Amino acid sequence: MSFAAHSGPSDWTGLPQTAPGFRPSTHKSASSVEKDYFQPRRDHCGHRATRGAWWSRRSKRPFTLLLSCVLLALCVSVPESALGKLIIDLRNPNRGKMPIAIPDFVSGSSGGISGNALADVLRNDLYLSGLFHVVQAPSDNSTPIDRPDFDRWAQAGVHAVVLAHFETRGDQLVLEARLYDVPMRRLEMGKRLTGRVVDHRLMIHRFGERVMEAITGVQGCFSCKIAFAGQTESREIFAMDYDGKNLGQLTRARTIVLSPDWSPDGRSIIFTGYGNGRPDLWSLDVATGRLQVVSSRPGLNASGRYSPRGDAIAVSLTFNGIPKIFLITPHGDIIKRLTDGRGNDISPTWSPDGASIAYVSDQAGSPQIYAIGVQGGEATRLTLDTNYNTDPDWSPQGDTLAFTARMNGRFQICTIRTDGTDFRVLTTQGSNQEPAWSPDGRMIAFSSTRRGRREIFVMDASGEIQVPVSGIAGKAPAWSPRN
To answer: Where would I find the beta strands (DSSP E) of 267-367?
Structure first.
């Protein structure tokens, strides 16, 4: 049976008409014009101010003016937390959720998309991050977005508020959105975005990423896609927005496809497919839908994972015996064999610096997670708390691994530090597998059977918030890089 890509619409071949919002992640589409009309504050030396160690505010006391004068004279940078900066410190394990209000966006034109629908996209983004308590906020069309009622929001216990105004002009959408610091009664950040009306969700996602960056110092990834192996009549590669919208089918192979992974530039997806009757490693050009074989060696060519720089792929091969981890070029040439010994070695994942690879091996009798340097050396076993562990994925921060552990007859998503400590269980309902970190390290996509069929879910990094997103049966989620 031939293995051919589906030919979709001419502007982005490879996707059916049911996915109008999908673009290769390297292309700018919705936010073709994004204007920042509020500049970041500078410290007394003229440098961009640094961030403090927690999200909080310190009231300005009488000595503050004197202290500021001394610091100005010494040209010493002052952390923004000391100046009342709106901050969520991602390093603080005891941080609380920041209360934020997002009233319906105000429309300056009649008809078309509603302000509630636009605001709902942002509310959901910030909620799923696990960092915010989104406060119910009644719509108020009478207050201009440049003159917020700080007293009203302060009485509601809100620390941040987003106000936005939008207009539709034919097929174009013009959106102006502002983030305000309520206790300090000031504008924190503002953006003006223009794009197509059909891309309104992407525009809001991009603004949400800027909100995350303004408050946490780390850009969000709400505009990212999730690719996965959908289980329709046959398994095919699908892609969707991270929140499940704009679902599109990338292949029409009518055969088994497994384990997709995006290239670091977002232009291609590698996966294992049986199009030629055997498990080969394939590459899909997301923009054109073109498919080509990367590795078709005898036996298994499985679990291909791009290196952070995209110049190598870690893959499990069996052409010379039992499964071992190899490094190959993006064109399929072998660079080196990385693992040895008597165990079956599968499911590699790269550290974000590209210096190490974690993988699964049964060399000790049951599947466990090990780590080894890319330059070689002795492998180190990381999992010790449970006797069956698979599907490792290295966090973007480099300090944590998410993985699947078998517990009480079911599979659950767990995390450990990369030194093997701080074992945590994130899921308890149903059977849960194949965790995949978002590019900002704030969310994890995974597959779950808790609603009967296996579906893609997304949760925040702590596991507190867990929601289904795929809409169809699927497994093996993989995040695209940031746009």
So the answer is: 268-273, 280-285, 291-295, 301-306, 313-317, 324-328, 334-337, 345-350, 356-361
User: Burial of 26 by CB count in 10 Å (0-12 exposed, 13-18 middle, 19+ buried)?
Assistant: middle
Q: pTM of the predicted model, to two decimals?
A: 0.84
> What is the spatial distance between Cα 271 and Cα 3, in angstroms, rounded to a whole number?
13
Residue-by-residue pLDDT tens, the chain, 483 positions: 333 333 332 222 233 323 334 444 444 444 446 766 544 443 333 333 433 333 333 333 443 444 444 333 333 333 333 345 688 888 787 789 999 999 999 988 877 889 999 999 999 999 999 999 999 887 766 678 999 999 999 999 999 999 999 999 899 999 999 999 999 999 999 999 999 999 999 999 999 999 999 999 999 999 999 999 998 777 899 999 999 999 999 998 888 999 999 999 999 999 999 989 999 999 999 999 999 999 999 999 999 999 999 999 999 999 999 999 999 999 999 999 999 989 999 999 999 999 999 999 999 999 999 999 999 899 999 999 899 999 999 999 999 999 999 999 999 999 999 998 999 999 999 999 999 999 999 999 999 999 999 999 999 999 999 999 998 999 999 999 987
Helices (H), 129-228: 150-155, 200-216
d(C-alpha 466, C-alpha 269), whole Å? 26
Q: Is residue 318 helix, strand or coil?
A: coil
CB 418 within 8 A of CB 398: yes
3-class DSSP state of 206: helix
Rounded Cα distance, 103 and 152, in Å: 13
Q: Side by side, which strands form the sheet with 380-381?
A: 345-350, 356-361, 368-373, 380-381
Q: Within its chain, how far is the Cα of 324 from the centroid?
A: 29
DSSP secondary structure code for residue 155 in this structure:
H
